[in-house]
Amino acid sequence: MSAKAFTTVVHAFADSLKNTPDGIAIHLTARSGETLGLSYADLYRGARCAANGLKEFGISRGDRLIIALPTSQACFDVYFAALFTGVIPIIVSGPQPNRGMEFYTAHLETLAKMIEARYLVVPEAIPAAMASFSALIPVAASTLCRNGAISRLDLVADETDIAHLQATSGSTSTPKFAIIRHGNVSANVHGSGVAIQHRAGDSLVTWLPFSQDMGLIGVSYALFWQCPL
Known about the structure:
Layout: H1 9-19, E1 24-29, E2 35-39, H2 40-56, E3 64-67, H3 73-85, E4 88-91, H4 101-115, E5 119-122, E6 137-140, E7 162-167, E8 177-181, H5 182-195, H6 213-224
Parallel strand pairs: 3-4, 3-5, 5-6
Antiparallel strand pairs: 1-2, 7-8
Helix pairs in contact: 1-6, 2-3, 5-6
């Protein structure tokens, strides 16, 4: 099947999982230089595990989930769990060195109120400052997988379903959110592949964070065109 035939990235992933489950989907390079290869089966397994945690917290289809994780296997696990279960992810950057944690937590709570999100997924060490949230509940990524994985995920999505919310930078004013639907994503990455004349055997290399729109769409591009990222 060509990428052109896929209506959503989720359908493309389901095809890869069925036909090449052990194929490496993502080569993740850590700051230390160590590289981890994640197959489609690995991604599916991690998503099932995180999806079980989302279910236990009462997070379900249509709910907004803020993800504040660095580029990591944990981030992939939570992001794909949301994508595959209809939970709407919003990926945000971590604290900025030139701005304090108090500013960061206030920023997150503002975003949460705007999009009606109740939960925030963070790295293992949850800063004490995050205890000051009035409505947003921080959850350590590992907590989502503490009780194992659900038996299976049905990899289905409709073009009109919301894939994620994308925030503007907020550098000059309060961030605004764009609603990105599965059909928007597939049209974008399909058009990009056609424009650059994507070929079998190509790989995609990216250094962009997932909180940046092109960084997240790069993940979708790789899954849609079934090429290693």
